[in-house]
Amino acid sequence: MSASPADTGATGSLPALWRGRRRRYLVALVASGLAQALLAGTGAHVIRTALERYQKGAPAAAGPAPAVWTLFGLLIAALLLVGVLQYGVRVWSELLSQDYVHDIRIGLMRRNLTAGLTSSLGVSVTRLSNDLTSIRNWITLGIVPVLVGVPLIVGTCAIVVVLDPAYLLSIGVPLALLLGALALLAEPLFRRTMELRRSRGRLSAHLGDMLLATPSIRSGGGIRRELKRAGRYSDAMVEAAVRRARFSGLVRGSTITTTGLITAFTVGAGLLWSIPASTTAAALTLIGFLVAPVHDLGRAVEYRQMYRAAQRMVGPATLLPAEPERPRRPDDAPRRRTGVPSAAPAGVFAAPRSTSDGTAIPGLAAAPGDRIVADFGSRSTTAQVLSQFAGLATATEAILVDGTDLRAAGDDRLRRIVGYAAQGMLLGRLTILTAVRYRSPAATDADARAALQRVGLGERVDRLAKGDQTVLRHGGDPLTVPERARLLLARALMESPALLVLDHLDADLDPAGRIRLRELLADYPGVVLYAGEHGDDVFAVSRPWQAAEATSRRVRHRPA
């Protein structure tokens, strides 16, 4: 498996958190922390005042004074408001994290749809699940607790110190030790998290490839061998998880110990400096509000390292490949330099170009009605060139179709002027009618049914239990491979685009399908750019397009 940018340590840029409506959620979370600190201070003040009044008031037999019950009611109200704020924190954190992860998920899918699947299926699924979960956890269990907890901790500590300055040491010393411990543990925890991520990615990639290769594994008697290999990857992941758990345990243990020390030191400070019991009770009440945010600080450090590891994986995967500079208009200087006519008549014009393997591809000029058979020596080279005409790869030199330079064409324009079908193309999870008019969203159901009839699929689709409303699954089930090829042909022919690109589609068609293909292309009004093994069966007249050293000449193919 080739190394990805993430494997080499490259990092990519993730979306900014402080953007759009997420700003409102962030401000609300900080305000919630401050409000909880004020409510905690109010509760502590109520407890201190109630205890003092009770101690100075009527004897115990008389019970608490009415004013004490009033203060007790205020305490209950403050605690209820804290619960309401916690409810808001939970909702705002979910809105914040889901909105942020949504942006990243769309970026990952855009990358895969625009540049193609750049890694194994298993790794891509891991990025869309585990890595995005780590990013979401960092927001909900890392950023949010910090945004809410830091104002709460700072505000609460300030109120405790106001109650009695002697409490400064009882709170400050444990918190300082905790911050130092978290700083020391953060980097080792990150390294262990990266090890776990890599182990999990290797396991996912292996499992994905293994499942795709199930028929060859079974036919080769390799089930036991593959299970052993998968076991080794799984053992490595388990070991990495245990190593990470050791440091994670240290982080969580530190936070729990810190809150215990704060409580013990506060009681000790009250005894050492003879602080009134009512003041100590108020301080302990405030410290009770510190327990959860202090624990959350430890979890924030842990989830921060998981986020950093996920960023190493997800960041580069959201970056689109650099594209060459696009021409500003179809008739600008780059087109004239490459020999493409400055006035763009109907048809297809392509400037000479070179492929990644160094094959020199001559220019092409084709008028409507021309049939071009492309063959550049190897199938991969031919597919590389045809993918530029289909818009699957960015062309390095000008390609004009019906007067539009494909390098500057948007998706809507591209689908109107180019139809494309290739061997082995998988169909999405769509109804048959939607799959047919996928290139032509404005087409009606009647148009799609007519297209199915033209390619000879009408009766076959009608026999399905749900007819043309059948949802295709697993790339095209329940249609057979030849039937899928016919459906792809129907889609490519919708609205008769100026350029029809067929890349070895005939290999998926049965003999009857190739006869139907020949009939459909016989009077096709646009340019047909074809690559395949059955050119003699498809075209009566065609023109070869070959590598630069080959001689271009008109060739007549006579069907047998």
From TrEMBL:
> Which residue intervals define the domain ABC transmembrane type-1 in the entry?
26-306
From the UniProt annotation, give the residues forming the signal peptide.
none
For this protein, the record's Pfam families field holds: ABC_membrane, ABC_tran
The record lists the organism as Microbacterium capsulatum
Q: What is this protein called?
A: ABC transporter ATP-binding protein
Localization? Cell membrane
Q: PANTHER family, from UniProt?
A: ATP-BINDING CASSETTE SUB-FAMILY B, ATP-BINDING CASSETTE SUB-FAMILY B MEMBER 6
* Ranges of biased composition (kind: Basic and acidic residues): 323-335
Q: Where are the transmembrane segments?
A: 25-47, 67-89, 138-161, 167-190, 253-275, 281-298
Region annotated Disordered, chain positions: 318-355
Q: One MF term from GO for this chain?
A: ATP binding
Q: Does the keyword Transmembrane helix apply?
A: yes
Q: Topology in the membrane? A: Multi-pass membrane protein
Which InterPro entries does this UniProt record tie to the protein?
ABC1_TM_dom, ABC1_TM_sf, ABC_transporter-like_ATP-bd, P-loop_NTPase, Type_1_exporter
Q: Which UniProt keywords apply?
A: ATP-binding, Membrane, Nucleotide-binding, Transmembrane, Transmembrane helix
